[in-house]
Amino acid sequence: MPLGKGELTTTATSLHILELIVDHGWVTLRGLVEETGLAKSTVHKHLSTLRANDYIVKEGERYTLGLYFLTVGKRAVELRDSYQLVEQKVRELGSRTDAEVDFTVEENGRLILMFEAAGATNESTFGTGTEFFLHNTAAGKAILATYADSKRDEILDTQGLPATTNKTIQSREALHAELEQIRENGYALNDGECVEGYRTVSSVIKRPNGSVLGAISAGGPAYRIDQSRLKNELADHVRSATAEVTESLVEAQSTL
Q1: Of 219, 201, 213, 224, the residue nearest 117 (C-alpha)
Q2: Residues 27 and 129 placed together within one structural domain of the fold
Q3: Among 38, 59, 95, 218, who pairs with 42 as Cys (CB 3.0-4.6 Å)?
């Protein structure tokens, strides 16, 4: 079982044992010792750890996969289907509006661009994997508006309110007031708060359980996107797109 660059021996061993259980269905401690060539105590420790985390179960002297994998597999399918639906909608919206459209998610208090699309006469300003703050982006504010006060404050305590332009929100009071407006409108706006001269409108996509999957945004340079178009045409398109994806996710969940 050769290790690849950057792999941990302990993790690789546990995964190898899991793969053997997948292959055989049911295994014994003795059988795993013979097949892996590892010490009995070492194999037992790996099995105990996997059992403690519900990845495997023990019946008598035999081990097999736990039903937790059913949850993991279902979640993997759900996420894959979710992102496929969103990516398709982002591309459709880019073509329909000839604006820059993207999908972002929040992770560890930062906004991460997952994928993007642009119309025929437009080019994407950012790139996949680009990270942003939440407080100075339309998508970030749209997501923050859905969070409980405790989660929002935890993010702000960690990330702060760094200014990237002279329009960036610099106080929590101002941010809280805008988040309230976002909840009323159903969308968030960004007019040069993150990048000078760049405007976007954003709305969130929700999972069937009500949590936020991410946000779709549409916009572009101010010389191409005026305020009227941003607040009317693009806002309507973004809200419709996120509502359609949210509804599709609910329908997909009901068939699982």
Answers
A1: 219
A2: no
A3: 38
168 DSSP assignment: S
User: Of all helices (H) and strands (E), which one includes residue 187?
Assistant: none
Same domain, 217 and 104: yes
- pTM for the structure as a whole: 0.71
Do 164 and 217 touch, CB atoms closer than 8 A? no
Q: How large is the C-alpha radius of gyration of the chain?
A: 24
Same domain, 117 and 170: yes
Residues 115 and 140 sit within 8 Å (Cβ to Cβ): no
Q: Which domain holds residue 95?
A: 75-255
Alpha carbons 152 and 4: distance in angstroms, whole number? 39
3-state secondary structure of 81: helix
In this prediction, residue 3 carries a pLDDT of 46
**Whole-number pLDDT of residue 251:** 84
DSSP class of residue 165 equals S
Are 207 and 156 members of one domain?
yes
